[in-house]
């Protein structure tokens, strides 16, 4: 069983303990937290054993019946606002933790990841405070009347399993609605990016969230904390973001006890550029969708289809943008392109770069590892890469790479491009670039995805439904849709 440690002592020894029932819990089983820009060890993470996972789930169960469970919804909403305010007060700490764990550029942390981390608490708190419940009045067989009304009750203990690519944003996207609905949570953050979970635990303690409402168990996935948490019978629902193959494993775990799941998973997203598009805006958006966060965005584009009259121009302009990206450490010398997140991920992306050559791709730019200054040589750097010339059946055109790369292919007709973009087992997102309103609306309806952007990318209104079609997800979160997973409807029928 783990030992209770003091936060300042853990900090001083660069140790990330677990957070269980308001206590910092260290274990002897440790793994390294690594800076992806240098490959250096920057801290040590305490892996939860089965005992810690069990304690966290029991603490979360007990908290459902404690002060949190009895709290008036207005108080709960105020507590979520306090969490959002505290994240903003500690903005710099979050930016530092996120950039150190992931290597993401400072501006991405400052303008996307951390602000959304705070907004995810505030917006869901406001939203759920204003959602009406359904009522139906009915005639009864004896000539009388009955009234039905629905109550929304928290689902219970929610297991949150999160990935490493945009850690704070993706974790709070689940924590915000889970807590706003009155659930309690056990979070298993990615083993690659553990720091923001501990900062969140500090924030929860600072605003006085009752004991056991929020718990963090660190560790790996299979045969480790992730698996033990999702298999735990005390968990009432599992929300997961990560790879589709991991989702399959979690679904098997969830089958025992018939626990509901909400899954946001992999993608192989298309961008479609019509010849009438505003090419300046298109290139800016397309480049962001391919290369932002070093291509480690689930919504990112890896397949680009360009209508033949503008194909050569789009390829040339995308090449110029890719070659202008400046790899480097967050905040150092104007760097706007970070490393990949881990050695394993770098090996995976490079294996696809090699595969593209084997499959006969024309390498327009990139394809390897950039030369870096001495102090960054140990990091997991990668070149932004563009290919052309592959057929639709090439593996590089069909499998999720999750790196800063895309294949650009020409197309002729609308009908043809819809079929080609839809010929995938994934269905997360797409973007369409055109000035023709009819084309835009037809594509929006025809593409088999959860989110279709027209003349934009990654423009998110948190009130809208978000999730993947096909093997990219199960269920929708966002706005009132999150209620479907984080609460249960209880119907009360009153005979008058
Ligand atoms: P991953 O599936 O490897 O890991 C995600 C989390 O699952 C980690 O916390 C990991 O420890 C845990 N895990 C792994 N095996 C497990 C198991 N057997 N049981 C329980 N937990 C387990 O994913 P990743 O590499 O961290 O993230 C990248 C993937 O996430 C990509 O496929 C990307 O498309 C996807 N993603 C999707 C979205 C979306 O909204 N659809 C958002 C971000 C990332």
TrEMBL record:
SUPFAM superfamilies: ALDH-like. Residues 24-492 form the Aldehyde dehydrogenase domain. Keywords: NAD, Oxidoreductase. GO terms for molecular function: oxidoreductase activity, acting on the aldehyde or oxo group of donors, NAD or NADP as acceptor. InterPro entries: Ald_DH/histidinol_DH (IPR016161), Ald_DH_C (IPR016163), Ald_DH_CS_CYS (IPR016160), Ald_DH_N (IPR016162), Aldehyde_DH_dom (IPR015590), OHmuconic_semiald_DH (IPR017628). Pfam families: Aldedh (PF00171). PANTHER family: 2-AMINOMUCONIC SEMIALDEHYDE DEHYDROGENASE. Belongs to the aldehyde dehydrogenase family. This is Aldehyde dehydrogenase. It comes from Novosphingobium sediminis.
């Amino acid at each position: 069983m783990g030992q209770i440690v003091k936060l300042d002592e853990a900090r001083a020894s660069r140790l990330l303990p677990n957070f269980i029932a308001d206590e910092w819990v260290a274990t002897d089983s440790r793994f390294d937290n690594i800076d992806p820009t240098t490959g250096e060890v920057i801290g040590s993470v305490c892996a939860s054993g089965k005992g810690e996972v069990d304690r966290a789930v029991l603490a979360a169960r007990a908290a459902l019946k404690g002060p949190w469970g009895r709290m008036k919804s207005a108080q709960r909403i105020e507590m979520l606002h306090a969490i959002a305010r505290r994240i903003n007060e500690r903005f710099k700490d979050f930016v530092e933790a996120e950039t150190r764990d992931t290597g993401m550029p400072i501006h991405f942390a400052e303008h996307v990841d951390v602000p959304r981390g705070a907004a995810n608490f505030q917006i869901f708190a406001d939203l759920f405070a204003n959602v009406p419940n359904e009522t139906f009045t009915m005639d009864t067989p004896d000539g009388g009347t009955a009234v039905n009304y629905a109550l929304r009750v928290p689902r219970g203990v929610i297991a949150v399993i999160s990935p490493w690519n945009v850690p704070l944003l993706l974790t709070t996207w689940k924590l915000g609605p889970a807590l706003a609905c009155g659930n309690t949570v056990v979070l298993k953050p990615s083993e690659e990016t553990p720091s923001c979970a501990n900062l969140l635990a500090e924030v929860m303690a600072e605003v006085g969230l009752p004991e056991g409402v929020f718990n963090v168990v660190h560790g790996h996935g299979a045969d480790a904390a992730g698996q033990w948490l999702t298999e735990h019978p005390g968990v009432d629902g599992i929300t997961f973001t990560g790879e589709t193959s991991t989702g399959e494993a979690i679904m098997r775990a969830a089958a025992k006890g018939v626990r509901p799941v909400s899954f946001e998973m992999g993608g192989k997203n298309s961008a479609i550029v019509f010849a009438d598009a505003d090419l300046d805006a298109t290139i800016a958006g397309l480049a962001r969708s391919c290369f932002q966060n070093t291509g480690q965005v689930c919504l990112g584009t890896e397949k680009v289809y360009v209508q033949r009259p503008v194909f050569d121009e789009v390829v040339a302009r995308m090449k110029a943008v890719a070659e202008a990206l400046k790899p480097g450490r967050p905040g150092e010398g104007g760097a706007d392109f970070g490393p990949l997140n881990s050695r394993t991920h770098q090996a995976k992306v490079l294996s696809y770069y090699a595969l593209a050559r084997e499959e006969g791709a024309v390498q327009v730019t990139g394809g390897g590892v950039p030369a870096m200054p001495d102090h960054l040589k140990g990091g997991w750097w990668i070149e932004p890469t563009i290919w052309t010339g592959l057929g639709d059946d090439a593996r590089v055109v069909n499998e999720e790479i999750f790196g800063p790369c895309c294949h650009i292919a020409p197309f002729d007709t609308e009908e043809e491009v819809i079929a080609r973009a839809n010929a995938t087992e994934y269905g997360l997102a797409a973007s369409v670039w055109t000035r023709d309103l009819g084309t835009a609306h037809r594509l929006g309806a025809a593409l088999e995805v959860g989110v279709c952007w027209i003349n934009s990318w990654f423009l998110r209104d948190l009130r809208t439904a978000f999730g993947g079609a096909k093997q990219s997800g199960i269920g929708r979160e966002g706005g009132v849709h999150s209620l479907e997973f984080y609460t249960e409807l209880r119907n009360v029928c009153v005979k008058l």
